[in-house]
Amino acid sequence: MTRRIMHIDLDAFFVSVEQVENPQLKGKPVVVGGRPDRRGVVAAASYEARAFGLHAGMPLATASRLCPQAIFIVGNFAKYRDASQRFMAILADFSPYIEPMGLDEAYLDVTGFESIHGSTHQMAQAMKQRIKDELGLCASVGIASCKVVAKVASELSKPDGLIEVAGGEERSFLTPLPTAKLPGIGKKAEQALKGLGIVTIGKLSTTPLNILKSHFGVSGEILYRLANGIDDRKVEPSGAAKSISRETTFATDIQHRPQLEATLRYLSERVGGELRQQDKQARCVTLKLRYSDFTTITRRHTLGQTADSDQIIFDTGLKLLKSALVREKRSVRLIGIGVSGLTEARQLDMLDSSAHRREQLNKAIDRIRQKYGFTAIQTGRTLLLRDIFPEDDGDYTLHTPSLSR
Ligand code: DCP
Ligand code: CA
């Protein structure tokens, strides 16, 4: 059965919430983000303001110069969160398979649920109507057989739009669009593609895979698949992994630093492997320690950039470990490392070569380990674990099984 996926995204979200509260703001250039004489950037701009070139991320001072008549609002996050919850609740009435992607955006797998409304098109119209009636907001909807095409469609339909791409029409729908319309293609990737003479998604979809791979590595294959409208990612209802962690309790409490670090390295690699398996990137790294007297601490660090590499997870965990142990001299009973703030979005414009090389290396290690077990490849640090944990079928047998989620 072919799937029917909807991508629903509210138009000019923060601004629209302000306009519902204060209808005088309707039809005017409005910016949420702060006062123009203060430092800061535009969070949201009304479509009237966008006509002057204003957009999210632009410094407020620039926005005010380009559009002096714009109305600047500081904004109130609690209000937007409340609107977001009510928005998601409406969507959940249409299908239980809902995956929120942010405050004002969600994927819905509606396969089989459309019959209640007549068709997917009528279902989307009913959804838009409820959002308008109950929240006063406009939503744009894309409907297709997979996430990427649904997302491109909703974006293209804005504002207050609705585009349905029939099954089998995915490629012809994408073909004429500029590459920048593909989610994940940022300015850098767009320029790199342009350098290769690739300006449209159609051109990208017919570029031989080996050429894309030689320029973009593993991202080349993702690009190729998305450009061809091939995307089998499922709609994952919330409750799907929001974090991934691995922890272990030692057989005897440990004070020996290298042994703690070796275990941390091992656990970091397990977390990293799982993260990449799920094709996700993490924003936060959390270290957990339980001391011999059972007091338990967690220490969290937010990364500057999302990551999925073992090295970054471990390095961050190690820093947290060192600073925790500076204050505490007690021996450790349990150590754990976890990642959270997971996103699926692959930043294809992050084609920075060192990050890229690391990614390639991690993928290669994952492949070998899938085949031959964890111990097939070891870093200097985890080798120490050979003396601590028994090996079983290419894996270390930890004293306690790893806990996760
Ligand atoms: N947002 C933000 N900072 C950004 C981008 C967005 O604070 N750099 C906030 C404000 C937006 C909300 O997130 O209103 C949703 O982001 P979108 O990218 O969906 O943008 P809008 O909803 O404002 O506009 P559009 O109609 O293009 O979806
Ligand atoms: Ca939006």
Q: Key terms for this structure?
A:
single chain; 405 residues; alpha+beta; four-stranded antiparallel beta sheet; 15 helices; 19% strand; binds 2'-deoxycytidine-5'-triphosphate; binds calcium ion
How far apart the termini lie comes to: 31 Å
Bound molecules: 2'-deoxycytidine-5'-triphosphate, calcium ion
Indicate the percent of residues in helices: 40-55%
**Which runs of at least 5 residues are low in confidence (pLDDT < 50)?**
399-405
Shape: globular
Main beta sheet, described?
5 strands, mixed
Question: What does this molecule look like?
Answer:
By secondary structure, the chain is α+β, with helices and mostly antiparallel strands. Helix content is 41%, strand content 19%. It contains 15 helices and 14 strands. Helix 4 runs antiparallel to helix 5 and helix 12 (257-277) runs antiparallel to helix 13 (310-327). The longest helix has 21 residues, at 257-277. Residues 399-405 have low confidence and may be disordered. The structure holds 2'-deoxycytidine-5'-triphosphate and calcium ion (CA). 2'-deoxycytidine-5'-triphosphate binds next to strand 1 and helix 1.
In short:
By secondary structure, the protein is an alpha+beta fold. The chain contains 15 helices and 14 strands. The protein is 41% helix and 19% strand.
Helices and strands in order:
Layout: E1 5-10, H1 13-21, E2 30-32, E3 44-45, H2 47-50, H3 60-66, E4 71-73, H4 77-94, E5 98-100, E6 105-109, H5 120-135, E7 139-144, H6 147-157, E8 162-164, H7 170-174, H8 187-195, H9 201-206, H10 209-216, H11 218-227, E9 243-254, H12 257-277, E10 282-291, E11 296-307, H13 310-327, E12 332-340, H14 353-372, H15 380-383, E13 391-392, E14 395-396
Parallel strand pairs: 2-4, 7-8
Antiparallel strand pairs: 1-6, 1-7, 2-3, 5-6, 9-12, 10-11, 10-12, 13-14
Helix pairs in contact: 4-5, 10-11, 12-13
2'-deoxycytidine-5'-triphosphate binds at residues 9-14, 43-44, 56-57, 104-105, 158-159.
